[in-house]
């Protein structure tokens, strides 16, 4: 009866929609799996798109070109990290609002975060375009790959606002329980990008031959069309989260929400930057050993993208699902979500690791020229490092659940210790003893440390007492309201919440 009443209240609040999903009801495991499948399929699409583009670049433009794209993409990932954190914070706030049956609050979050997110991404694109050459010099990009990397990176920077606004809207929709719609439009983007890559790289008819920059141009054009189509669809369907012309005032920043986006988003974005900077440091170490090792590492990165996909998909689904249940204050379901996510990741990631090791000769050869000596080097380093993604999956799920309440500092500290206190020192200081293999062994060693620290914090940390938004002036904050958002005045009162214990228990069994 409680679930039925909650659904009725949701409909009365104007939030019922075939494009959104209530993640506070139903069996945990099945709901999580169904919700995560479109995310996983989207990750597959993006990886296939990146891999197909890498095949065009690596096999037809050479090892220097694939080294250039690997360096440029690492730079790109680092520079958008802080903006991406704002998007993650917005997603959690929207999910909490939907769980609390507060649609007006969700739309206020979207308006404020869209303004901040858009402005920041444009600023980063401008700075990145201007300083592309200097950034690549700081990275130590091999001289033969430098001009190619700069040409590719400059065009990619022009695409950043479209690329990440598309990702932002998709993430917000996932927070509202809709994973299917972002998948369909991502499919459109991938099909366009895949078709346009050879056209812009090699040229045809009136289209000039652009070389490696043509690969980046295909990404820009595809995301421009896909983002416009997504916005048009949201307006045509009158999506519950669409901000129409009569609500343009919602794009004026709300100071309370803006504060939460910055205070909570910056630490989450800093995690992305921290990962990127560590990868850049490792890339610098690899680059110092020459193009052969760099191209082998670049090919391995393409393979690892697929191996980490279940962790990324299920972790993202767990974060949205946990945030909705935090908003509804259903703490037992939060624990059950974490347990189900960990088990799914172990099974799926473990299976992919076995397949990747068995078939790595064939897969890695796709990203390297025929007869390249880098193939065996890539296979060797892959056998050492690939197991780290099993530990990564557990960490990703637990960190996502913890962040769903607004506890963002502890995951940042854990990641900092694992990367800068373990991975980089192992990779650098053990090279005199282990040679270049020290770089590859640093992956599983640091990932295992991160997993153990995350499990410890989940079990004994006080992350349940965190919150995303500061209480409004007319609210009295109580321990039972930790993580909850204020109910909308137009909505009915929600069902009685489950009390939140002071300390987080272990992973509770799904019910």
TrEMBL record:
<dbReference type="Pfam" id="PF01554">
    <property type="entry name" value="MatE"/>
</dbReference>
<feature type="transmembrane region" description="Helical">
    <location>
        <begin position="75"/>
        <end position="95"/>
    </location>
</feature>
<dbReference type="GO" id="GO:0015297">
    <property type="term" value="F:antiporter activity"/>
</dbReference>
<feature type="compositionally biased region" description="Low complexity">
    <location>
        <begin position="501"/>
        <end position="511"/>
    </location>
</feature>
<keyword id="KW-1133">Transmembrane helix</keyword>
<feature type="transmembrane region" description="Helical">
    <location>
        <begin position="408"/>
        <end position="426"/>
    </location>
</feature>
<protein>
    <submittedName>
        <fullName>MATE family efflux transporter</fullName>
    </submittedName>
</protein>
<feature type="transmembrane region" description="Helical">
    <location>
        <begin position="438"/>
        <end position="458"/>
    </location>
</feature>
<dbReference type="GO" id="GO:0042910">
    <property type="term" value="F:xenobiotic transmembrane transporter activity"/>
</dbReference>
<dbReference type="InterPro" id="IPR002528">
    <property type="entry name" value="MATE_fam"/>
</dbReference>
<keyword id="KW-0813">Transport</keyword>
<feature type="transmembrane region" description="Helical">
    <location>
        <begin position="116"/>
        <end position="139"/>
    </location>
</feature>
<feature type="transmembrane region" description="Helical">
    <location>
        <begin position="183"/>
        <end position="204"/>
    </location>
</feature>
<feature type="transmembrane region" description="Helical">
    <location>
        <begin position="257"/>
        <end position="283"/>
    </location>
</feature>
<feature type="transmembrane region" description="Helical">
    <location>
        <begin position="342"/>
        <end position="364"/>
    </location>
</feature>
<feature type="transmembrane region" description="Helical">
    <location>
        <begin position="384"/>
        <end position="401"/>
    </location>
</feature>
<feature type="region of interest" description="Disordered">
    <location>
        <begin position="488"/>
        <end position="511"/>
    </location>
</feature>
<dbReference type="InterPro" id="IPR052031">
    <property type="entry name" value="Membrane_Transporter-Flippase"/>
</dbReference>
<dbReference type="GO" id="GO:0005886">
    <property type="term" value="C:plasma membrane"/>
</dbReference>
<keyword id="KW-0812">Transmembrane</keyword>
<dbReference type="InterPro" id="IPR048279">
    <property type="entry name" value="MdtK-like"/>
</dbReference>
<feature type="transmembrane region" description="Helical">
    <location>
        <begin position="151"/>
        <end position="171"/>
    </location>
</feature>
<feature type="transmembrane region" description="Helical">
    <location>
        <begin position="216"/>
        <end position="236"/>
    </location>
</feature>
<keyword id="KW-1003">Cell membrane</keyword>
<feature type="transmembrane region" description="Helical">
    <location>
        <begin position="303"/>
        <end position="322"/>
    </location>
</feature>
<keyword id="KW-0472">Membrane</keyword>
């Amino acid at each position: 009866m409680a679930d039925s009443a909650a659904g009725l209240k949701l409909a009365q609040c104007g939030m019922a929609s075939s494009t959104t999903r209530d993640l506070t009801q139903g069996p945990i495991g099945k709901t999580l799996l169904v919700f995560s499948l479109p995310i996983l399929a989207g990750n597959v699409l993006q990886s296939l798109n990146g891999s197909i583009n890498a095949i065009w670049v690596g096999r037809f433009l050479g090892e220097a070109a694939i080294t250039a794209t690997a360096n440029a993409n690492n730079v790109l990932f680092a520079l958008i990290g802080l903006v991406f954190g704002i998007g993650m914070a917005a997603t959690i706030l929207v999910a909490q609002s939907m769980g609390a049956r507060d649609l007006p609050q969700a739309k206020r979050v979207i308006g404020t975060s869209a303004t901040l997110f858009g402005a920041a991404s444009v600023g980063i694109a401008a700075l990145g375009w201007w300083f592309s050459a200097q950034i690549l010099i700081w990275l130590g990009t091999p001289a033969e790959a430098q001009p190619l990397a700069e040409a590719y990176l400059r065009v990619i920077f022009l695409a950043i606002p479209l690329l990440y606004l598309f990702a932002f809207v998709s993430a917000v929709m996932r927070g509202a329980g809709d994973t299917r719609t972002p998948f369909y439009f991502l499919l459109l983007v991938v099909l366009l990008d895949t078709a346009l890559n050879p056209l812009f790289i090699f040229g045809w008819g009136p289209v000039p031959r652009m070389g490696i920059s043509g690969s980046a141009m295909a990404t820009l054009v595809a995301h421009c069309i896909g983002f416009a189509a997504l916005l048009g669809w949201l307006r045509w369907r009158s999506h519950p989260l669409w901000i129409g012309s009569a609500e343009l005032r919602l794009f004026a920043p709300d100071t309370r929400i803006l504060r939460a986006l910055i205070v909570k988003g910056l630490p989450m974005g800093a995690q992305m930057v921290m990962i990127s900077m560590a990868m850049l440091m490792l890339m610098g170490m690899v680059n110092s050993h020459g193009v052969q090792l760099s191209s082998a590492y670049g090919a391995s990165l393409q393979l690892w993208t697929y191996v980490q996909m279940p962790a990324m998909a299920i972790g993202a689904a767990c974060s949205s699902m946990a945030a909705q249940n935090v908003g509804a204050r259903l703490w037992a379901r939060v624990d059950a979500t974490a347990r189900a996510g960990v088990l799914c990741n172990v099974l799926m990631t473990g299976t992919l690791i076995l397949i990747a090791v068995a078939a790595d000769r064939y897969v890695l050869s796709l990203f390297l020229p025929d007869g390249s000596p880098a193939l065996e080097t890539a296979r060797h380093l892959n056998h050492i490092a690939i197991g780290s993604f099993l530990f990564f999956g557990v960490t990703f799920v637990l960190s996502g659940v913890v962040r769903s309440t607004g506890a963002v500092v502890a995951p940042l500290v854990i990641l900092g210790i694992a990367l800068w206190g373990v991975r980089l020192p192992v990779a650098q200081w053990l090279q005199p003893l282990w040679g270049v293999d020290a770089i590859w062994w640093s992956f599983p060693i640091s990932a295992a440390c991160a997993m153990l620290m995350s499990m410890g914090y989940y079990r004994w940390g006080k992350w349940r007492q965190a919150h995303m938004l500061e209480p409004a002036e007319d609210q009295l904050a109580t321990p039972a309201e930790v993580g909850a958002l204020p109910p909308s005045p137009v909505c009915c009162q929600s069902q009685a919440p489950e009390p939140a214990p002071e300390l987080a228990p272990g992973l509770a069994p799904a019910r």
